[in-house]
Amino acid sequence: MTAVSAIAAAGVVVYACGGPWRRPIAAPVRPDPRSWLADDLTIAYIGHASVLIDFAGTRILTDPAFFARIGIKVAGVTIGPTRVVRAALAPEDLPPITAVLVSHAHMDSLDRPSLRCLTAVPLLVTPRQTRDLVDDLGFARVVELGWGEHVEAGDVSIEAVPVNHWGKRWPWDGWRGYNGYLLTKGEHRVLFASDTAYTEAFGALAHAPRIDVAIFGIGAYDPWIMNHADPEQAWRMFTMTDACYLVPVHWDTFRLGKEPLGEALARLLIAAGPEKARVAIRRTGDTFVVPRGGCDPTPAPAALSRSTRDLLPGATPIASAASGGEAGSHPDSLRVATPIASVASGGVIK
Asked: How many CA atoms lie within 13 A of 30 on its CB side?
């Protein structure tokens, strides 16, 4: 590495990791799981790849990451990227959880400090050859899944499905697995694929019963397009699944790519075009309740969550339930054209 390259790499790390002068802002909306109806399929976006899914009382949490930084802990200090937006829920705000899913060993998905707060959850699901990273945390049951394998969490079946990504936590452990997950309860299905480059493999899931919600990552594609789909690719993969609604994740929580804040969601809505109402969540903290009575690919605003209705043309504004909201906490205040940087110092963030 030349001196110029070394200086540039150091600049990327400093920019991505931030410092005490840059604190995460409050999530613009705060979910309220206590208000959810017991027989609904409800999904709340906590931030990054953390999603709370309530299958009519069976609650599943994906890739939990609650704290201001992710990365390597040295002498009690976490060295790694700083959040842009705080998690919409803290561990103590969560309802009882049936299972936690970890998609792969990267530090933004397998965040040990966050998992340590959830050891009362009866089931932790991880990819193949990753349980050594979590066995010491104290979970009563840890199940590794390879593609095509499944486990039951209450009355929800959890199946590991292929994604186009990679599983290293450190430069030398490329043998670790990485998963998407297909969740099924009766006639309802949810796909979670937060970290994947473009692949046509998702087309194999387009069969009855129809997927209610597909959760796809849309950020960190510049320059990591070989690892993360861009928004247009995410939309194409969503349409391949024939799912009813799309929940975009993995955007504007951490600075993991060079794309400007706000670009990923804006590009996704353009790609969706006249079907953009199928993009069910658009802010950190949004909650979406799947409409009863079947899939409507062009739902009326009343079928969407309150916070999502706020963003649809002609909708009546509804005050958000942001906790500790502050001026400029809405993502619109983050939509700037300044490039953002990624980081890969030591352990693998992305």
From this structure: 15
Neighbouring-strand partners of residue 181? 160, 192
Residue 215 half-sphere exposure toward CB, CA atoms < 13 A: 32
Longest dimension (CA), the chain: 62
The closest alpha carbon to 120, from 155, 95, 157, belongs to 95
Q: Which domains does the chain have, with CATH numbers?
A: 3-334 (3.60.15.10)
pLDDT in tens, the chain (350 residues): 454 444 433 444 444 445 445 788 999 999 999 999 999 999 999 999 999 999 999 999 999 999 999 888 887 788 889 999 999 999 999 999 999 999 999 888 899 999 999 999 999 999 999 999 999 999 999 999 999 999 999 999 999 999 989 788 878 888 899 999 999 999 999 999 998 999 999 999 998 899 999 999 999 999 989 888 999 999 999 999 999 999 999 999 999 999 999 999 999 999 999 999 999 999 999 999 999 876 765 443 334 444 443 433 332 222 233 333 333 333 333 322 222 222 333 455 55
Strand pairing category for 188-193 and 213-217: parallel
Distance of CA 109 to CAs 44, 100, 208, 284, 341, Å? Answer: 17, 11, 30, 17, 19
Between the alpha carbon of residue 57 and those of residues 115, 125, 264, the distances in Å are 21, 19, 32
3-state secondary structure of 202: helix
pTM of this prediction? 0.81
Report CA 243 to chain centroid distance, whole Å.
Answer: 17
Per the listing, tokens 């352990």 go with: 347
Tokens for 75, please give them.
Answer: 């002498």
